[in-house]
Amino acid sequence: MTATSEKVVLPPIPAKRYFTIGEVSELCGVKPHVLRYWEQEFTQLKPVKRRGNRRYYQHHEVLLIRRIRELLYEQGFTINGARNRLDSRGDVVEESVREIDVQALVASGKPASNVDVEQLRRDLLNVLDVLSH
User: Fold this and answer.
1) In CATH, what number is assigned to the domain containing residue 112?
2) Long-range contacts of 12-17 (CB under 8 A, 24+ apart)
3) Which of 16, 75, 91, 131 has its CA 20 to 30 A from that of 83?
4) Residue 109, SS3 per DSSP
5) CB-CB neighbours of 114 under 10 Å
6) Global confidence as pTM
7) Domain encompassing residue 28
8) Helical (H) or strand (E) element with 82
9) Nearest to 120 by CA among 110, 28, 39, 67
10) For residue 82, is it within any domain?
11) What is the mean pLDDT of residues 1-15?
12) Has residue 125 been placed in a domain?
């Protein structure tokens, strides 16, 4: 499958627990209405909804959105194709998640000693748990 566009360099994901739809939009290079649509198409995306139906995404969901964006925009998959790829190819997703986290870590410019490795491990386990369901 050929890529439909060049790979976009996305900003590093800050070390925080929840992100608003506006923040996720900027972190993933996708407009908010697209994120709301993807929630309907990809069952793995389930942001917490609080007051006034405001959405709050967790770190693992930001990683998943970046993976969906990559499949759709860079690799040229259709929505159905991307959904099937995520459902049937957990190994590919795991590899992509590792790559994204390493890219975010390198882009943050933090020395490895300042990185909360335990939190990073928990985040990765959360991603794997979400993607396995």
Assistant:
1) 1.10.1660.10
2) 12/103, 12/104, 12/105, 12/107, 12/108, 13/59, 13/62, 13/63, 13/104, 15/116, 15/119, 16/59, 17/58, 17/59
3) 16
4) coil
5) 8
6) 0.65
7) 18-131
8) helix 79-88
9) 110
10) yes
11) 73
12) yes
